[in-house]
């Protein structure tokens, strides 16, 4: 019976090709939209995760707070409370493997007739390990460079491209704030950060050079801390907060003049946010599947009306209620089946096209494909029940007298 029902459904679809295609269109668009949009959501989630991971999964960042002044308070991070001594004290904590003081400011950097505005950061030798930077050519900053306050620089891939083009940068001199700095290394490219920023548009110099010879200040913009492997970051964060409160003479935690950010917490927050975005995109796309189901029901009702006489003849020849229901349900499911298959092909193609022709990354997984296909089959079954019941309940005599 199932085989016969399938063959009859196929014959009906072939006999009304355009109508069947238009009926499938809602399912095709719905399945394709779910796959494409969810793959975009997964791609955004993967990009954010990769970007944060590139900074280091066991990373903590210590920022100064805002000055507690009367009237309008300055922005967060504008206080001058973090000192080099704070970084050295944090480095002595047992669960900390590396620490780097950081000072930074944007400058126009000049090489011969070319110039480029970029961010110049003063860091320690451990900064490369903390942030997973690797060297393409030359070397990174050394302890000797820090102790001697040398005017040396390590440049990112974007700076190298805009100042030197195809020329080898290592050994050349650039001018930062009209002072010469010798390039001792070029970094491997990292790409965009989690907020779309260019991580390669950067120059690193020794933090002592930055504080005393470039910026002329005795405080830090931030401190990067790398926890030892397998250590609870929340515990390390608590230890850092405690030691800074002691050093800064703070007894009430609500009056902290610093902020500590835990990258694991940041990653969890970002994953939660992008997960919600993915669910929203999938839900929006799924609405078109429901619209497609309504289209199936509409066409099936039309089909019942057109085939009233056929139904009457089948019932007069002994077709049961279940036989008629099965016939129309199979027809609705077959339409959903082929619509789902075409939708999968179209959706995967759209996801690949989005990834290929734009900067957006897409991640195609089996979950959304199976879910959207199963949902399309369920839609066909659910919205095919009413037309099938209407056909099965026709009185054979009335059906034979129809028309």
Key descriptive features of the protein:
403 residues; 56% helix; single chain; 10 strands; alpha+beta; six-stranded mixed barrel; 2 domains
What is the overall pLDDT average? 82
Query: Could you give the order of strands across the largest sheet?
Result: 2-3-8-5-7-6
**Gyration radius over CA:** 33 Å
Q: Helix- and strand-based class? A: alpha+beta
Count of the domains: 2
The outline comes out as: elongated
Instruction: Work out the helix count.
Output: 13
Any low-confidence stretches, pLDDT <50, length ≥5? none
Helix content: 55-70%
Q: What is the helix/strand order? A: HHEHEEHEHEHEEEHEHEHHHHH
Give the amount of beta strand, in percent. 15-25%
The number of strands is 10
Q: Describe the biggest sheet? A: 6 strands, mixed, barrel
Distance between the termini: 29 Å
Give me a quick take on this structure.
The protein has helices at residues 2-15, 17-55, 84-91, 127-130, 143-148, 157-164, 207-215, 233-248, 263-306, 308-316, 321-357, 366-392, 396-401; strands at residues 59-64, 96-111, 114-123, 135-138, 152-155, 173-176, 179-187, 202-206, 222-227, 258-262. By secondary structure, it is an alpha+beta fold. The protein folds into 2 domains: 2-51 and 269-401, no CATH class; 80-256, no CATH class.
């Amino acid at each position: 019976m199932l085989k016969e029902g399938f063959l009859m459904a196929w014959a009906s679809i072939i006999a009304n090709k355009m109508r069947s295609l238009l009926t499938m269109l809602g399912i095709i668009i719905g399945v394709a939209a779910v796959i494409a949009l969810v793959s975009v959501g997964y791609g955004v989630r993967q990009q954010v995760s990769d970007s944060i991971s590139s900074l280091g999964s066991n990373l903590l960042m210590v920022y100064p707070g805002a000055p507690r002044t009367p009237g309008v308070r300055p922005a967060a991070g504008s206080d001058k409370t973090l000192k080099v001594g704070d970084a050295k004290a944090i480095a002595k904590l047992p669960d900390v493997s590396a620490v780097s003081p950081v000072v930074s400011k944007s400058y126009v950097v000049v090489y011969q007739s070319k110039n480029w505005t970029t961010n110049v950061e003063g860091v320690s030798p451990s900064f490369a390990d903390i942030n997973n930077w690797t060297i393409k050519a030359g070397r990174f900053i050394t302890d000797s460079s820090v102790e001697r306050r040398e005017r040396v620089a390590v440049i990112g891939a974007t700076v190298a491209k805009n100042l030197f083009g195809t020329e080898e940068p290592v050994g050349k001199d650039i001018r930062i704030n009209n002072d010469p700095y010798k390039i001792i290394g070029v970094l491997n490219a990292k790409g965009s950060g989690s907020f779309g920023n260019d991580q390669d548009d950067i120059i690193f110099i020794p933090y002592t050079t930055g504080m005393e010879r470039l910026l002329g200040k005795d405080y830090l913009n931030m401190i990067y801390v790398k926890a030892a492997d397998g250590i609870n970051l929340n515990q390390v964060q608590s230890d850092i907060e405690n030691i800074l409160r002691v050093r800064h003479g703070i007894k009430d935690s609500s009056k902290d003049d610093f902020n500590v950010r835990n990258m694991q917490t940041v990653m969890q927050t970002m994953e939660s946010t992008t997960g919600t975005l993915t669910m929203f995109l999938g839900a929006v796309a799924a609405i078109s599947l429901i619209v497609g189901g309504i289209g199936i029901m509409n066409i099936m009702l039309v089909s019942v009306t057109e085939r009233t006489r056929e139904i009457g003849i089948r019932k007069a020849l002994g077709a049961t209620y279940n036989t008629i229901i099965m016939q129309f349900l199979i027809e609705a499911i077959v339409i959903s089946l082929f619509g789902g298959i075409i939708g999968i092909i179209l959706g995967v193609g759209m996801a690949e096209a989005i990834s290929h022709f734009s900067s957006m990354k897409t991640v195609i997984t089996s979950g959304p494909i199976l879910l959207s296909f199963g949902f399309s089959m369920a839609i066909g079954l659910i919205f095919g029940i009413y037309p099938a019941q209407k056909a099965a309940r026709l009185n054979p005599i009335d059906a034979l007298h129809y028309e």
